[in-house]
Amino acid sequence: MTQLIASISLVVFVVVMLLVGVYSTKKAGTVEGFLLGGRNIGPWISAFAYGTTYFSAVIFIGYAGMFGWNIGLSSMWIGVGNALIGCLLAWVLLAKRTRRMTRTLDARTMPEFFAARYNSRRIKIYAAAIIFIFLVPYAAGVYKGLGTMFSAIFVGADPVTCMLIVAVLTGIYLVLGGYVATATNDFIQGIIMIFGLVAMVMILLSKPEVGGLGAAIEKLSAIDPQLVDPSGGKSTSFLITNICLTSFGVWGLPQMVHKYYAIKDESSIKIATIVSTLFATLIGCGAYFTGSLSRLFIEADANGLPNVPGGFDGVIPGLLMKALTENVFSTVILSIILLLLLSASMSTLSSIVLSSSSAVSIDLVKEVHPEIKPKNQVMLMRLLCLVFIAFSFIFATANISFIVNLMSFSWGVVAGSFIGPFLWGLYSKKVTQAGAWAGMLSGIVVVGGCILYFTATAGFDVAKSMSPIFGVSAMATSVIIVPIVSALTRKFSEEHNQKVFRNSEEKIEAPQQVPSEA
Predict the structure, then answer these.
(1) Model confidence over 352-392: pLDDT tens digits?
(2) Torsion angles phi and psi, residue 263, rounded to 5
(3) Which residues contact 362 (CB under 8 A, 6 or more apart)?
(4) How many C-beta atoms lie closer than 10 Å to residue 106's C-beta?
(5) Does some domain include residue 405?
(6) Does the predicted TM-score (pTM) go above 0.70?
(7) How many domains is the chain built from?
């Protein structure tokens, strides 16, 4: 019964996603249409696109399972940090400036923004290479998280087959409709995520193993008082590190910043800020709260680890299979949760793929073949979407089990490379090209250097466990080093700064229509 209901739900979901892709094809005929939806995306779709890209299956399968089990209810502070810092503060500080400046500089991608802002083709090429190379393992982590959940629900199913289905479906609707299809599907997927999470939490609280919120707190306290300690107890520093990594990190991730480029007007930014913050609060806190309840459903082994196949990656699937397979109603909810995880993963994956394909087709190929026609550029982007999906799928099928660490390494390199040059570039006229380069190099140098050092001195297992610290260190270094190096190196001319910042304080309205095909 579980598999039958899940299969029916999955088929309906697939049909809807494909229909959206077909419908959006006519809006993706130009480079700007395919990549940015003509810079005419409304507030609700923009907000849901941001939120669903933020939270993939990894937050449920990897982060919520591990942190909920180890830290308990205080792991919800990560969700709070994601909402207040990763959404609210990010939209307030970055959205308006990014929208204005990318229009001023005619930048459609983050590498294009860096090239125009810092007058450097080499920065553009370097940024594009970082995006394409390091978003592959990031996408692979998304695949693996979803494959774990599929194999738990469809007993005996090959996780690789499940990942292949996701890859093919994402590739089809993304290639057909570009960003419009992605953003529209994100909105639909976001609604599914909200309904699925609320239903899941309510059912879990009603289970006899939990007995309501008050009883849950008492039972968790009886297992280990640290599980209900608001400060995280002995895990406080670890908790703060992960809040910083997952909350500030999105400020420098191209697939997140991309949403600011496409929003149609500044009045839409206000609405999108509120909606995305509320969405992140619900999804983030709900996911970690669910993970903390796993202690009441799953037994610990002799070492205090969850006694389920797959270790921490199996915590949430094991919890859901135990709690939501008793009757038809709960099985229907389980199917919706499956779609929740599928939705979260596909939205994240499609945004990553779009950022990576544009990094090559617009930022690299354009440098080698500057006279490439716009129509050919769109075709190349579509082809590269498929190539990137194939690469990340192959990477995901490799025998790499440390899903959370994999995400942290990639997140740290990409965010650490871009957050300093991007943030300072939006606000300061004093940033120099050398300062931007210093910030750009922070991601690979800090994360790569730390991995090599701790692997050589303490082993790779220790380096894996410290991956969040490496990422936070890279981001902090990037933000700090950009103004320091800029103060010591040659400044840009006043003419260049006036060109870059000429519209930074002026309101720029949405285009009246999507540009016609060139």
Answers:
(1) 777 777 777 777 776 777 777 777 777 887 888 888 888 77
(2) -65, 140
(3) 31, 35, 108, 109, 111, 112, 377, 381
(4) 10
(5) no
(6) yes
(7) 1
The residue range of the domain holding 307 is: 2-399
Tell whether 44 is covered by a domain: yes
Q: How far is CA 230 from CA 4, 72, 235, 239, 450, in A?
A: 41, 9, 11, 11, 31
> CA torsion sign, 28 to 58 to 201 to 153?
positive
H or E element, residue 315? helix 315-323
User: Which sign does the torsion angle of CA 366, 350, 170, 15 carry?
Assistant: negative
Q: How far is CA 102 from the centre of its chain?
A: 21
Residue 94, domain CATH = 1.20.1730.10
Q: Is residue 357 part of a domain?
A: yes
Q: What is the pLDDT of residues 267-312, one digit of tens each?
A: 899 999 999 999 999 999 998 998 899 888 888 887 878 888 767 7
CA distance 55 to 343: 10
Q: Is residue 10 part of a domain?
A: yes
pLDDT reported for residue 476 = 94
3-class DSSP assignment, residue 30: coil
Please state, in angstroms and rounded to a whole number, the distance separating the CA atoms of residues 45 and 288: 25
The CA distance from 216 to 88, in Å, is 30
pLDDT at 148 exceeding the cut of 70: no
Using the structure block, give the residue that is written with the tokens 């959370």. Answer: 404
Helix (H, G, I), strand (E, B) or coil at 362: coil
Residue 269 CB: number of other CB atoms within 10 A? 20
| Cβ atoms of 148 and 313 closer than 8 Å | yes
Question: pLDDT averaged over the chain?
Answer: 81
Amino acid at 166: V
401, with CB counted inside 10 A (0-12, 13-18, 19+), is: exposed
Where would I find the H helices in 31-158?
Answer: 31-36, 43-54, 57-58, 65-71, 76-81, 90, 96-104, 110-117, 121-153
Name the 3-class secondary structure at 263: strand
Do 10 and 340 meet the contact criterion of CB atoms below 8 Å apart?
Answer: no
- Annotate 19-38 with b (16+ C-beta within 10 A) or e (fewer): ebbeebbebbbbbbbbbbbb
Cβ atoms within 10 Å of 60's Cβ, excluding its own: 32
Residue 20, token pair as written in the block? 């959206």
